[in-house]
Amino acid sequence: MDFEKIFKNNEHWVAEKLALNPGYFSDLSKGQTPEILYIGCSDSRVTAEDLMGVQPGEVFIHRNVANMVISIDMNAMSVINYAVRHLKVKHIVVCGHYECGGVKASLQQTDLGILNPWLRNIRDVYRLHREELNAISNEQQRFDRLVELNVQEQCINVIKTAVIQEAYRERGLTVSGWVFDIRTGKLIDLKIDFTKILADIMEIYRLI
Ligand code: CO
Fold it and tell me: What pLDDT is recorded for position 197?
């Protein structure tokens, strides 16, 4: 992939957008009012807007290795704060994907340097759900299930923040967990029971 091609592609894209709507970019430049904050994996095969079929301006997006929500990650916490307090998003989605390299690495005995502390958070997810995961004898199915449980735990990490607890109480913000099945292209709603989880963890994590 050469850069020349990328800039050519961009010219075509601009022309296409303007042919449909001459005011497309001047409208975009006026501001954004996305209703969804999407937290997904950086994986090059899991393109947020494409797989959801959404347009620029519709979804606020944060991506990192293995779609993690870590309490001391200033980047993710800033994104969540900005999206909830300033953009007033109505929904937060954590979207994982099968065959996630980050999740796979956490299942292996490998020293990955700076990635060790990052991926250790996924090992913690494994430890929390060790009984269920160890009962799955098929390696692929165990890997898939860890991807799903990691999404669930990252949703819980979102719920542990004060901004989310406040927005839930004041305007009914929701948190959802999805998985993108890279083998079929399908987006799967894990149907995480947000209200139940919230009630369950608030005993310990209530901040406001
Ligand atoms: Co991934």
Answer: 84
Q: Please tell me whether residues 145 and 59 are part of one structural domain.
A: yes
Residues 14 and 73 in one domain: no
Q: Which domain holds residue 24?
A: 1-30
Residue 119: phi, psi to the nearest 5? -75, -15
Where b means 16+ CB within 10 Å and e means fewer, 19-52 reads eeeeebeeeeeeeeebebbbbbbebeebebeebb
95 is catalytic: no
Concerning whether 155 is annotated as a catalytic residue, the answer is: no
Same domain as 158, residue 104: yes
pLDDT digit string, tens, across residues 86-116: 999 999 999 999 999 999 999 999 999 999 9
14/38 same-domain check? no
**Considering 62, 95, 100, 155, which one is annotated as catalytic?**
100
Residues 24 and 70 placed together within one structural domain of the fold:
no
Has residue 23 got a pLDDT over 80? yes
Residue 27: active-site member: no
Kindly state the average pLDDT of the residues 47-55: 95
Q: Find the catalytic residue in 27, 45, 85, 183.
A: 45
Any catalytic annotation for residue 97? yes
> What is the CA angle 14-88-153, rounded to 5?
100
Q: How far is the CA of 8 from the centre of ligand 1 (A)?
A: 29
Please tell me whether residues 87 and 67 are part of one structural domain. yes
Report residues near ion ligand 1: CB below 5 Å.
41, 43, 100
